[in-house]
Design goal:
This protein is of the alpha/beta class and about 375 residues long. The chain has 3 domains: about 1-195, Ribonuclease H-like superfamily/Ribonuclease H (Nucleotidyltransferase, domain 5), CATH 3.30.420; about 205-295, DNA polymerase, domain 1; about 305-370, HRDC domain (DNA polymerase, domain 1, Orthogonal Bundle), CATH 1.10.150. The chain is about 50% helix and about 10% strand. It is built from 16 helices and 6 strands. A 6-stranded mixed β-sheet has the order 1-4-3-2-5-6, with helices on both faces. β3 and β4 (about 55-60) form a beta hairpin. α3 packs across α8 and α5 (about 125-130) packs across α7 (about 165-180).
């Protein structure tokens, strides 16, 4: 196992141009997130299939030393080169912030392992152990990746994260192709990328207790959350440092009209000084919305009969997963089973994008049939 540290534009550009001649690139990032909204990129690791260095060399790109990131963005957007990552969600956030692009097509080895029934949600070390028989050390997991110079131990650890994933990807690719699951995996990759682009748009619907709000209160909650999201991004601070979810809900419920009323909500004094006027302006705007512009109320929790239906439906899902020889959790996110129960009850629901494609026939059709009382 060897690695090369790339610390100049002159070294990076020709390397990535050659890399684009190969069929796949293994990617990983190291980043820090200390009291910030955005992750701070500290290192990019690459290993290439059919390109310079083969699978024996990791290329460690120092983003603190690179000025021209265009070659990296071009590689990530080159659809002729498969981008292989393990549990990609946090890396996607790094790429989106740092480069303004996302890697496509995306082959997520964690998701691939679930689709070929190795296991769901497997960590990197566990997956490498399961496929390659290598027990990787934890090493520099909590290291300060923004320090310079990087230590030998840090670089060795970063290199193994991509070098050891290359043979794992090859085996997962073989199994996906043998089980006709590669198209499923790549389609899921597209869904993951679409979700990353839309992150934060519906945050208010995930706040506990939001279903209790009437339509105008819900509109206020949506706008307060949208304002908080923009403020957190602008200031590069965690959402909770602006105002927490509980405060967002209480502000929307009470809809205070002046500073004195706002002070009646348990907000820290610095928040009131810095953001009080902004919050009141957001609320004033939502009070002017016409009734037909207000969102529909969020659905109430399932009743007892529906909860029983949900249990039976999840049992059907587990049986279906066994038939398909894949991890049950990869069929659908847990919240989707509740959506199916609500759809069966005649409630209007918004169909998630991932209900299209392979899940439409392989998963949703038999689960809907089970709700009708037919065999899945």
């Amino acid at each position: 196992m060897s690695w090369q540290l790339i610390q100049s534009d002159e070294a990076l550009a020709p390397l990535l141009q050659q890399a684009r001649q190969g069929g796949a690139v293994i990617l990983d990032t190291e980043f820090m997130r200390r009291n910030t909204f955005y992750p701070q990129v500290a290192l990019l690791q690459l290993c290439f299939e059919g390109a310079p260095g083969g699978g024996d060399t990791a290329w460690l790109v120092d983003p603190l030393a690179i000025q021209d990131t265009a070659p990296i963005a071009a590689l990530l957007e080159d659809r002729a080169v498969t981008k292989v990552l393990h549990s990609a969600s946090e890396d996607l956030e790094v790429f989106q912030r740092w480069l303004g692009v996302l890697p496509q097509p995306l082959f997520d080895t964690q998701r691939a392992a679930a689709l070929v029934d190795i296991g769901f949600g497997m960590g990197y070390r566990a997956l490498v152990q399961a496929i390659s028989g290598i027990d990787l050390p934890k090493g520099e997991t909590r290291s300060n990746w923004l320090q310079r110079p990087l230590t030998q131990a840090q670089c060795d650890y970063a290199a193994q994260d991509v070098i050891c994933l290359l043979p794992v990807w090859r085996e997962l690719l073989r199994r996906c192709e043998a089980n006709e699951r590669l198209d499923w995996l790549l389609a899921d990759g597209e869904d993951v990328l679409a979700a990353a682009r839309a992150a934060g748009d519906d945050y208010h619907t995930r706040i506990k207790g939001a279903w209790k709000l009437d339509r105008r209160q819900l509109a206020a909650l949506a706008e307060v959350c949208r304002w908080r999201e923009q403020t957190a991004r602008t200031r590069d601070k965690p959402r909770g440092w602006i105002i927490d979810d509980r405060a967002c809900l209480e502000i929307a419920r009470r809809s205070p009209r002046d500073q004195r009323a706002l002070q009646g909500i348990d907000l820290p004094a610095p928040v009131l000084r810095r953001h009080g006027r902004d919050i009141l302006e957001v609320l004033a705007a939502t009070r002017e919305l016409p009734d037909d512009a207000l969102p529909q109320r969020l659905p109430q929790p399932l009743d007892a009969a529906q909860r029983d239906q949900l249990k039976r439906l999840k049992s059907s899902g587990r049986a279906l997963a066994e038939t398909l020889a894949l991890a049950p959790e990869i069929l659908l996110p847990g919240k989707d089973y509740e959506l199916l129960v609500r759809e069966h009850a005649g409630e209007a629901i918004t169909l998630p994008p991932h209900w299209q494609g392979w899940r439409a026939d392989a998963v949703l059709r038999p689960l809907r049939a089970s709700l009708q009382g037919a065999a899945p």
